[in-house]
Design a protein that fits this description.
elongated
Length: 75
């Protein structure tokens, strides 16, 4: 008897979190661009860039964990 395969039913909880983080990251990037035009050497820009990098890492971690889980379930 062949092994039964799991099929995704819909978006995972990771997908919603990734989408939320991507929107937040886009907001940071937009604000960074605006601030760079007004104050090219402002300290706020560095703080926003740091926050954007943290969000990028969170997105990557969620994607990795979701991909890892999907590949484990596919086996």
């Amino acid at each position: 008897m062949p092994a039964e395969r799991w099929k995704p039913i819909g978006p995972s909880k990771h997908d919603a979190e990734i989408d939320r983080l991507l929107m937040e990251l886009a907001s940071f990037n937009k604000r960074i661009t605006e601030l760079e035009k007004l104050h090219p050497e402002g300290w706020k820009i560095e703080a926003l860039k740091t926050s954007a990098l943290v969000l990028s890492r969170q997105i990557d971690e969620l994607r990795y964990s979701a991909d890892d889980l999907t590949s484990l379930l596919a086996k």
